[in-house]
Design goal:
There is one protein chain. The chain has two domains: about 60 residues, Alpha-Beta Plaits; about 250 residues, Aldolase class I (TIM Barrel). Strand 9, helix 5 and strand 10 form a beta-alpha-beta unit. It has an eight-stranded parallel β-barrel with strand order 7-8-9-10-11-12-13-14, surrounded by seven helices. With about 350 residues, the protein is an alpha/beta fold. Helix 3 packs parallel to helix 11, helix 6 packs across helix 7 and helix 10 runs parallel beside helix 11. The structure holds phosphoenolpyruvate and manganese (II) ion.
Length: about 350
């Protein structure tokens, strides 16, 4: 349930409510808004204690949260969450574009493409150092060496970086170098990994599992928030359907639906969703029109030589053209884009 406190409630008053929640064996999650403080109360049958809180004079209202996900729901928090990464705000007015290669392949490759996407207007650099590959014989990523190149590229370009942690044991290492920790589609229901990134403070980019419903996706985000980390960005990256003309099926209705159900920012990855570089432009435009807060796009200076996902990577020249379109579309829709 959600307890909304009256405007002007003092710290002492808030503490009194928190103490009561804990005394009853529940877990409080505090969200301080401009005017009001709201407290999410998580625990089985918490709603049965509703009257105890309703009787407190500093409490304005006590409402049950009807959805299975609590902290990620709009019922818990009605205003949009804005995740701040350096000077970049994801979930605000700006359509934020994250771009870079599928995988970090070498220092030279990464530094070059990082500079190119930066000049075109990308706000965050992407690149995998730990790659989740279908085949154990495919390139698995450079590991820590790749993370070091990402950190260097970030220093040179001043772009924050997002990169994947594939396993609980990699989280601490990845967090040392990255500004955003990515949890990939194949790990969306790796609950130990979700709890681990949830215990940290680094923003998390959670990608939708390829066979997951929106509800399951939001439940996974709930794991991260309930572990204490509220800095979560959701990413729609296509789901498995009978359609095999594209790599996956980009579920754009999920973007609009999630924006209604949750306060968390949502971005779209048209690269993995389509697996086809010719569809990146149209799907990027469609994603923004559907209300996406940003995009994640794979860019490679020489896609034909890429060690992974070359067929869906666009060249820096095409990325530059796409960024121009994104900028004018964002503006037409009352949003900003660099
Ligand atoms: C990626 O973004 O590098 C990636 C592997 O994507 P996904 O987890 O969506 O397949
Ligand atoms: Mn890829």
């Amino acid at each position: 349930m959600v307890i909304t406190l009256k405007p002007g409630t003092t710290e002492k008053g808030i503490q009194h409510v928190l103490d009561k929640i804990k005394e009853l064996g529940f877990t409080p999650h505090v969200s301080k808004g401009a005017e009001r403080t709201i407290i999410g109360v998580i625990g089985e049958n918490a709603i049965q204690s509703r009257e105890i809180f309703q009787a407190m004079f500093i409490v304005e209202s006590v409402m049950p949260i009807s959805r299975p996900y609590k902290l990620v729901s709009r019922e818990f928090k009605s205003e949009d969450t804005v995740v701040k990464v350096g000077n970049v705000e994801i979930g605000g007015k700006e359509v934020v574009v994250m771009a870079g290669p599928c995988a970090v392949e070498s220092r030279v490759q990464l530094l070059k493409v990082a500079q190119e996407v930066k000049e075109a207007g990308a706000r965050i650099l992407r690149g995998g150092a730990f790659k989740p590959r279908t085949s154990p014989y495919s390139f698995q990523g450079l590991g820590e060496e790749g993370l070091k190149y990402l950190a260097e590229a970030s220093e040179v370009t001043h772009l924050p970086v997002v990169t994947e942690a594939r396993d609980v044991r990699q989280v601490e290492l990845v967090a040392r170098y990255a500004h955003i920790i990515q949890v990939g589609a194949r790990n969306m229901q790796n609950f130990d990994l979700l709890k681990e990134v949830g215990r940290g403070k680094k923003p998390v980019l959670l990608k939708r599992g390829m066979s997951s419903t929106v509800k399951e996706f939001l439940m996974s985000a709930e794991y991260i928030l309930s572990s204490g980390n509220y800095n979560v960005i959701l990413c729609e990256r296509g789901i498995r359907t009978f359609e095999d003309g594209t790599r996956f099926t980009l579920d754009l209705s999920a973007v609009s639906l999630i924006k209604q159900l949750s306060h968390l920012p949502v971005i779209v990855d048209p690269s993995h969703a389509t697996g086809n570089r010719d569809l990146i432009g149209p799907m990027s435009r469609a994603a923004i029109a559907a209300g996406s807060d940003g995009l994640m796009i794979e860019v490679h200076s020489r896609p034909e030589e890429a060690l992974s996902d070359g067929f869906q990577s666009i060249r820096p020249d095409d990325f530059r053209k796409l960024m121009k379109e994104i900028r004018s579309l964002a503006k037409a829709l009352g949003r900003d884009s660099v």
